[in-house]
Design a protein that fits this description.
The structure is a single chain. By secondary structure, the protein is of the alpha/beta class. The chain has 13 helices and 14 strands. It has helices spanning about 20-30, 40-50, 60-70, 85-105, 135-155, 175-180, 205-220, 240-250, 260-270, 275-280, 285, 295-300, 310-315; strands spanning about 10-15, 35-40, 55, 75, 110-115, 125, 160-165, 165-170, 190-195, 200-205, 225-230, 235, 255-260, 290. α8 (about 240-250) packs across α13 (about 310-315). Pfam families: Epimerase. This is NAD(P)H-binding protein. InterPro entries: Epimerase_deHydtase, NAD(P)-bd_dom_sf, NAD(P)-dependent_oxidoreduct.
């Protein structure tokens, strides 16, 4: 490893046009890092963000990733196949490309993790070392991703994984908040909530996730070869706190709450692959979950945390859901419900 605690260097971001990848890239650039980004249309990407060093290439091509990683001390793996097509078939080969490149150049891999690789057998209080018994195909793939990274760490590739709950925030596509709880581009007349009152749920504000990842990168030299952490994020301890925050954001204390149409998901799941996956993930809304962040606090001293009211306003504004933003164009295209990787 070539970086030292608190230093800057060259970081390769795979997924720099995405939510978490873009946020980490911008944050590291502001801290003095040289940010290199691999993109299938580097010319277009550079017109949108000129501060990064864009390289033409595809994360699914091992040669492209290897060339982009040359001279990098950190690789942030926050990339998915275009449009999430063939995710289950492509995501592991993409990670293998990153591992091979990191091993060749001596770079550290940083991965934004999820809770999908855990099943309800280890709920309600989840710590980093809990057994991984996933309920879904996506969870099984996530488990395998971490297993490959752990094996790589034993072969000399240092790894940081930061797991968090359901993302929300500006530019956080493919999430329950913007494709489940609210309807985009119109004044909110109701909230559609997938869980039930009394069931705890974990949320993570994307800018806070990015800031936490950056602080871990800054302390990388003091971390173990395989370092996995949990964020507490916004812990809705009874399933009503996020609803209340949305109501405050739009100034409607009596905003109606409707049940998410799980009946439709169940009915259509034999015929619609997306609905089948959502049905499999329902346990995350039926079982209480609380993520412990003791290890993160011991490492960083604190967890970056934006006040939930500020975070919800910042999330709703670009979606066109606030009274003074109604009708404004969306800054990000809506993704597929609940399918953030």
């Amino acid at each position: 490893m070539t970086e030292t605690q608190g230093s800057s260097g060259t970081v390769l971001i795979l997924g720099a046009t995405g939510g978490i990848g873009g946020a980490v890239a911008r944050g590291l650039h502001l801290r003095g890092w040289t940010v290199r980004a691999l993109n299938r249309d580097a010319a277009k990407a550079s017109r949108n963000v000129s501060a990064f060093e864009w390289m033409q290439g595809d994360a699914m091509n091992a040669t492209d990733v290897m060339a982009a990683a040359d001279g990098a001390s950190v690789i942030v793996h926050a990339v998915n196949p275009p449009g999430y097509r063939n995710w289950s078939k492509l995501v592991l080969p993409m990670l293998d490309n990153t591992i091979a490149a990191a091993k060749a150049v001596g770079a550290r891999i940083v991965l934004p993790g999820t809770i999908y690789n855990f099943g309800p057998d280890v709920f309600p209080v989840l710590n980093e070392d809990a057994p991984q018994n996933p309920r879904t195909e996506k969870g099984a793939i996530r488990k395998e991703m971490e297993a490959r990274l752990k094996a790589a760490s034993k072969a000399g590739v240092h790894v940081i994984i930061l797991r968090a709950g359901d993302f929300f925030g500006p530019s956080a596509a493919n999430n329950w908040f913007s494709q489940g709880l609210v309807k985009l581009g119109r004044p909110l007349t109701a909230i559609s909530y997938p869980g039930k009152k009394g069931t705890a749920h974990q949320w993570a504000y994307l800018p806070d996730v990015a800031e936490t990842m950056i602080r871990l990168i800054e302390r990388a030299e003091s971390l173990p070869p395989f370092a996995a952490y949990h964020m507490r994020g916004f812990f809705d301890d009874d399933g009503t706190k996020m609803i209340a925050a949305i109501r405050r954001a739009v100034g409607k204390p009596d905003l109606k709450v409707k049940r998410f149409p799980w009946w439709l998901v169940t009915l259509a799941s034999p015929f619609v692959p997306l609905f089948k996956e959502l049905k499999e993930m329902r346990y995350l809304w039926r079982e209480p979950l609380e993520m412990q962040n003791d290890r993160l606090i011991a490492t960083l001293g604190e967890e970056p945390q934006t006040a939930v009211d500020d975070a919800v306003v910042a999330t709703l504004a670009p979606l066109g859901c606030l009274p003074w933003d109604c009708g404004r164009p969306l800054t990000t295209a809506p993704g597929r419900l609940g399918l953030s990787s």
